[in-house]
Amino acid sequence: MENDLIAQVEDLNELVKIRRGKLSDLQEAGNDPFQITKYDVTHHSIDITDDFEALEGQEISVAGRIMTKRLMGKASFCHIQDRKGQVQAYIRKDGIGDDAYEAFKTYDIGDIVGIKGVVFKTQKGEISIKAGEVLLLSKSLQVLPEKFHGLKDTDTRYRQRYIDLIVNPEVKETFFKRSKIIKEIRYFLDDMDFLEVETPVLHTIPGGAAARPFNTHHNALDMDIHIRISLELHLKRLIVGGFERVYEMGRVFRNEGLSVRHNPEFTLLELYQAYTDYYGMMTLTENLIRTVAQKVLGTAKVVYDDTLIDLEKPFEKLTMLEAVKKYTGLDFDEVLDDEAARALAKEKDVHIEKHFKKGEILNAFFEAFVEEHLVQPTFIMDHPVEISPLAKRKPSNPAYTERFELFITKREFANAFSELNDPIDQRGRFEYQESLREAGDEEANKIDEDFLTALEYGMPPTGGLGIGIDRLIMLLTNSYSIRDVLLFPTMKNK
């Protein structure tokens, strides 16, 4: 096995040497392809096949990468790949000239060429271009993976996404869909009169989420800076300032582990709407996801990991108390205090931290016993106040908050609140979070004095929502790992 691998590497090295030799020959002959600065492209591959009747007999020009090549004496065929797909070119010696044809015969799979010619259909019925000119635009000095098997090694695919995009067309389609999903989200929110804004990436105080930040240092100001973990606190400052509907879609950064669901940098949508609450956010969330699915896929019933996910029917709603009772039979309303909750956790072998209170223990039971059942869209509502430092308390039960999380395919997709706008209560929540930091919780929030000052000026009743865009794209493209929907995921150095 080892000898076979060494032989393969030696063969590849020899092929690379041959390609570099061809480049040298071209340069010595004054035909250096890297000296070409532009090429006029009139059509793309799909344009030609879709509009064949209108284009038949017309002269066009295309450009792309040679993916297949068949030499047959005085005539040859090749397929070139552009951003939309592939198209066949028919190349004859008497069509492009003796010298140009001899040059074409030396071109390699992976070379980028421009082809000018007439659209026609071969005797076998394949729409093609009868070349009148073939021009080498860039020489490929590396060998593409074997065409019939493509690039399957996931580590190489993620590290060298450019190869993945060349040889695996379905990957390119995923990222076309990603772009369309993001556009449709913007269309949806713009139509609802939301204003798209940009807020700082560099924060003096990390806040808005329970996460460890990446830290850096600003030399000129001689101060520590944190790369944002959330968009929340700056957007709510804008609500205070009078922007009644705002959103931002951008990268956030969390210094956490990697998994099929987590990447240290990811795309987050956060929006805030004055004069509504978390029920308003539920309606918006459900309509947004359903509408985007219909616009991008043509249906709101999607298949994910061989399971039909129905985004058309109304999403289920359960409080966290109801969900835990449904899947464990335990009623936390009957758990009298923190000590009783700790005893129950010990009895049921649920891991908790020493400082956990009843509300945090309820959440631990939810994570241990409920999340794995939430395949179809489900809003989990009314989280304990201990785990919701930025959400408004329920007037009818102040131990819980007006908060929901949306779960689909056992994963959290969205998090939303009736936003806490009481600056005195907010200070108390921040102080509790600070006590957790002092107890060793590096993900707990810090006190943000400027944000508290903003609240003291008055923030109207507000609903806020955050959606993990990458997870939504995973759902709508049937992608198993978050790395499959990030063009350049974070990878450990080799």
TrEMBL record:
Source species of the chain: Petrocella atlantisensis
Name the record gives this protein: Lysine--tRNA ligase
Cofactor descriptive note: Binds 3 Mg(2+) ions per subunit.
Summary of subunit composition and partner proteins: Homodimer.
Residue positions binding Mg(2+) 1: 405, 412
Sorted UniProt keywords: Aminoacyl-tRNA synthetase, ATP-binding, Cytoplasm, Ligase, Magnesium, Metal-binding, Nucleotide-binding, Protein biosynthesis
Catalytic activity: tRNA(Lys) + L-lysine + ATP = L-lysyl-tRNA(Lys) + AMP + diphosphate
Annotated family: Belongs to the class-II aminoacyl-tRNA synthetase family.
Primary location recorded for the protein, binned into one broad class: cytoplasm
Ranges for domain Aminoacyl-transfer RNA synthetases class-II family profile: 178-489
E.C. number: 6.1.1.6
Enzyme class: ligase
Annotated compartments: Cytoplasm
HAMAP family listed in its UniProt record: Lys_tRNA_synth_class2
Transmembrane regions: none
Binding locations of Mg(2+) 2: 412
GO CC terms: cytosol
Coiled coil feature spans: none
GO annotation terms (biological process): lysyl-tRNA aminoacylation
GO function term, MF aspect, one: lysine-tRNA ligase activity
One protein family per Pfam: tRNA_anti-codon
Obligatory cofactor(s): Mg(2+)
